[in-house]
């Protein structure tokens, strides 16, 4: 009995150590990407983002989509604003809204209906929540890093991981090419993408 208990303690310690190492690697990777982003000019970010969303628009899954989840980009992220403004009259464009530890979805109705209401400084749509999640055709997801197996590394808050557990749709990651790695550390709760596009 003692041996069995001790074995489980050793196993648990090993799992805890492995989890610590994964989190340490994720932290290092976030730092590397942050430094690379800092070297980009606003003009470079805009042009790289334009290239990425030109590719998005050529995807059959986008062409067929009527309801698309996007995101309102922060500085340094793949910029979405031009894409959203171009398409929101033709398709329903949803944006995430922070609600405690979770994300809600709301339709984008124009810049005049956007407001910063969270500690992260992300502009969010005003109005009612979109609740028919099963009707979302495409989710465009940002990330700190992705890999060639379509794994995603976020900011560490797991907002999108919790969202994507319940959002059963095509998951499209977008990033600059220096954010795509051969392999990144991933945990059991990390939700992979169906496809990743870069510039």
Report on this structure.
The protein has 199 residues and is α/β, with parallel strands linked by helices. The chain has a single domain, classed as 3-Layer(aba) Sandwich (Rossmann fold), CATH 3.40.50. It has 5 helices and 11 strands; from the N terminus they run αααβαβββββββαβββ. The strands form 3 sheets. A 6-stranded mixed sheet has the order 3-2-1-6-9-11, with helices on both faces. The longest helix is centred in the first third of the chain and has 37 residues. The chain is globular. The N terminus is likely disordered.
Fraction of residues in H or I helices: 25-40%
Indicate the CATH topology: Rossmann fold
Dominant shape = globular
- If helices are DSSP runs of H or I spanning 4 or more residues, what is the number of helices? 5
The strands making up the biggest β-sheet line up spatially as 3-2-1-6-9-11
CATH class: Alpha Beta
The helix/strand class is alpha/beta
Q: Low-confidence segments, ≥5 residues, pLDDT <50?
A: 1-17
Cα separation of the termini:
57 Å
Total beta strand runs: 11
- What is the assigned CATH homologous superfamily? NagB/RpiA/CoA transferase-like
Mean pLDDT: 90
What is the succession of H and E elements?
A: HHHEHEEEEEEEHEEE
CATH architecture descriptor: 3-Layer(aba) Sandwich
């Amino acid at each position: 009995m003692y041996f069995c208990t001790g074995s489980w303690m050793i196993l648990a310690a090993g799992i805890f150590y492995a989890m610590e190492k994964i989190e340490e690697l994720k932290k290092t990777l976030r730092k590397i990407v942050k430094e690379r982003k800092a070297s980009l000019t606003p003009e470079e970010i805009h042009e790289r983002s334009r290239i990425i969303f030109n590719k998005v628009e050529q995807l059959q899954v986008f062409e067929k989509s009527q309801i698309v989840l996007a995101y309102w980009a922060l500085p340094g992220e793949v910029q979405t604003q031009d894409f959203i403004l171009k398409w929101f009259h033709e398709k329903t464009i949803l944006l995430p809204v922070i609600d405690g530890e979770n994300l809600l979805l709301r339709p984008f109705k124009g810049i005049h209906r956007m407001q910063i209401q969270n500690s992260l400084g992300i502009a969010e749509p005003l109005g009612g929540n979109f609740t028919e999640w099963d009707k979302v055709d495409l989710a465009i997801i940002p990330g700190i890093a992705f890999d060639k197996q379509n794994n995603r590394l976020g900011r560490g808050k797991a907002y999108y991981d919790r969202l994507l557990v319940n959002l059963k749709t095509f998951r499209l990651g977008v990033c600059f090419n220096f954010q795509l790695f051969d392999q990144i550390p991933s945990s059991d709760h990390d939700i992979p993408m169906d496809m990743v596009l870069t510039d």
